[in-house]
Amino acid sequence: MNILAVIPARGGSKGIPRKNVRLMNGEPLISYAIKNSLHSKYITDVVVTTDDEEIVNISKCYGAEVIIRDNSLAEDHITLDPVIYDATIKTEEQKKKKYDIVITLQPTSPVLKVSTLDNAIENFIENNYDTIISAVNRPHLSWGEKDKQIVPQYEKRLNRQLLPKNYVETGAFLITKRDIMKEMSRIGEKVSIYEVPEEESVDIDSKEDWMLCENLLKKKKIVFRCDGYKKIGMGHVYHSLTLAYALTGHEVIIVTNEKHAEGLKKIQDSYMQYITIQNDKDFFKFLEEYKPNIIVNDCLDTEEKYIKKLKELCEKVVTIEDMGTGARYADIVINALYNEQKNANEYCGSKYVCLRNEFLVSKPKEFCNEIENILVVFGGTDPANLTKKVYNIAKEITKTYPKICFTFITGIGYNCKENDLLSDEKSNIKVLNDVNNISMYMQQADIAFTSQGRTVYELASLGVPSIVLAQNERELLHTFAQMPNGFMNLGLGENLSEETIKNTLEWLIETPQIRKEMRELMLKNDLKDGLNREVDLILN
């Protein structure tokens, strides 16, 4: 079966001057239609019909043949029917053969995928249509004019998903039998619509269409690999979700181990696309099938063998908080919690911290000499159970300072009942679990207790004087939460007596000048551009 693709491309585009030869995401616009035609399983020959010398040269460069159209066929009022007919007749004469099918392929649909085009050709052949036209289904409540009156074009007001189908031509392609083609018509009696996906439906008529297409063509497939459970906490999941939310416009999917219920629940609640795996073998298999552009591995220390395998399956690998032997083989290593750069591919320090959106818009409250609210937040799982240690202290503190209120916020992986951690109205103690907007509670706090992970950056962004107790030895390596940045760091939490923590808190309550200095040191840090810096490293 002989199938001809005809790509009409005038040089005199007025809406966007020189549209067909302008670079769209680094390639001439017309090149996308040519490449789709050449990569199709079914198309026999590809010709561009044009009146423009530059389009001629570019078309030949990308592998298409060219038909020079007469000036009479390049005028603004000329429809495509005689142009496509002319190109078909001339190509048949040159090649001395007759085509069975002729496809009009517009250069103004660069986001059309070759797989969609081939599926449409298959559908055309299998159903013996005379003509198939590309369209997108856009049901809407619409209005028209009748007898100079505005009238509804629907019988009943329904939600969009319940409305009847409303097909709008995309202009991407028109497939027709050669035998029914005439000089002024390419549409036969047996006509059908081939529905293209919404993301492939853009037809460039305006500058806004151009920008939309360029963004769609720049869209990357990005995989985040992260887990959250009691031993390591929930920081990796929160970090990956924050980055995923910031990558709107890209195809993002999160991969997590199915046995880590706490992290899986948080990812499910985010409504982000995700899959679960059982082991690295499952992960590698998924990557082979999905073929991502970028992998962001947020799972602490990696091994050389692991990163090298990821590099085989993806063009770019980014690792987070990676101090393992595999780090040197990644393209980018982002270690916001550490300051020491070990390899040239590492980006370290607080300038790469990734604050969640709620902290990017929140503002610090006014400083208060008197302490009213103390916040206690030790992360999503609190593996060292530092929450319970401070809870015991709070019971004593509120006896001495009856006007002070304690708010304990526990995470999704912490069992309050199991740890006998309950709200106590008489002691001014409130216990909350898995809150959605933690910045609101931080804004109200005069002092905070926290561990040495990413929460310290959130508290610093709001200038909350904080007492830090590290969860484990690894956290002790995180250098930000120290006095130069406004933190009272007491070291490894499990080694501290309740008396030491209580004495420190009482001293801080009684010294407003120290708290004010801590607040000022915190607010000197530029933390709100870190998310943009991290996104830029991932994408560019």
Short description:
This protein is of the alpha/beta class and 540 residues long. It is built from 16 helices and 24 strands.
CATH topology of the largest domain: Spore Coat Polysaccharide Biosynthesis Protein SpsA, Chain A
What's the overall geometry?
elongated
Strand order of the largest sheet: 5-4-1-6-10-7-11
CATH H-tier superfamily of the largest domain? Spore Coat Polysaccharide Biosynthesis Protein SpsA, Chain A
- Extended strand count: 24
CATH architecture of the largest domain: Alpha-Beta Complex
Task: Give average pLDDT, whole number.
Answer: 94
Distance between the terminal alpha carbons, to the nearest Å?
Answer: 44 Å
Please work out how many helical segments DSSP would assign.
Answer: 16
State the share of residues found in helices, binned by percent: 25-40%
CATH class of the largest domain: Alpha Beta
Domain module count: 3
Strand content: 15-25%
Quaternary structure classification: single chain
Biggest beta sheet attributes: 7 strands, mixed
Structural class: alpha/beta
Characterization of the model:
Helix 11 (386-400) crosses helix 14 (498-510). The longest helix is centred in the first third of the chain and has 16 residues, at 80-95. This protein has helices at residues 29-39, 53-61, 80-95, 114-127, 207-218, 235-246, 261-270, 280-290, 304-313, 357-361, 386-400, 438-444, 455-461, 498-510, 512-523, 530-539; strands at 3-8, 23-24, 27-28, 45-50, 65-68, 101-105, 131-137, 143-146, 149-152, 167-177, 191-195, 221-226, 251-257, 274-277, 294-298, 316-320, 332-335, 346-348, 373-377, 405-410, 429-433, 447-450, 466-470, 487-492. The mean pLDDT is 94. The two termini are 44 Å apart. The chain has 540 residues and is of the alpha/beta class. The chain is elongated and about 100 Å long. The protein folds into three domains: 3-205, Spore Coat Polysaccharide Biosynthesis Protein SpsA, Chain A, CATH 3.90.550; 219-348, Rossmann fold; 362-523, 3-Layer(aba) Sandwich (Rossmann fold). It is built from 16 helices and 24 strands. A seven-stranded mixed beta sheet has the order 5-4-1-6-10-7-11, sandwiched between helices.
